[in-house]
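[Automated response] Your request has been received and processed.

Submitted sequence:
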Amino acid sequence: MNFRMIFQKVKGLLIFLLYFLASIGILQAQFTIPPPPKKIYPVNDFAQVLPQEHVYSLNKKLIRYNESTSTEILVAIVKTLNGEDPNLISANWGEKWKIGQKRQDNGLILLLSIDDRKISIQTGYGIEPYLTDALSRRIIDNQIKPALRQGDYYTAIDQGTTAIFQVLKDAYTNKKKTSKKDNGLENLFLYLLLIFFILYLFRSGGNSGEDRRGSVYYDEEDPFTLSSMGRWNGHYGGNFGSGWGGFGGGGSFGGGGASGNW
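Generated structure:
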């Protein structure tokens, strides 16, 4: 075997390796949005950077906001986007998981990519006139980035969502009303509950100092009790009624929002 033949074989091997490495790079550059679960929670920490108590607290906060405004805010935390555009991923995530009420399009995605150190806020069509691109960027720069740079993901999300609440104040209200018949049944239930509670106190000797939170009735701090109107009813916050794939039928996203690095 002469030198020319050896060179050709080595050259062919190198070309094969280059194509192989390039194909791996292409595969790694793809980010797949996970399919919507049957129970969608407001906070989805795929990177596992938040303690459970922080997930619980943020879910409870976003559930209560959803019940009073009908606006759906989804927080998605991932390890990496594999080089893809955070704004495009966020908007596609909102569409795929049908975040927001149908016809109101009042969904919002807050995306964090930990290893990339990227953040994106993407709004549904209905929120765009209130939470403009400039306001989204201001919230990212002033309320979210400082905490992210300290590695405090909980504070970043907490402050960011509070700022979003303030911008969207009075923009939406939950118009779902209870019928008179339902109100009558609720009142009857409350009367029976009160009678049962009085009888229970007499039976227990009137020891009203005993902590019964979450034992006989419900714990008012538990998200199980926070979402009779919406999809967010499950442990740590999230059933979303018909599942997120159906909260209000699903809103649309038009690319409004902002992104940045920290």
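Summary generated for your ticket: The radius of gyration is 25 Å. The helical segments are 3-28, 52-69, 86-96, 133-149, 153-167, 180-203.
If you did not submit this request, please reply to this message.
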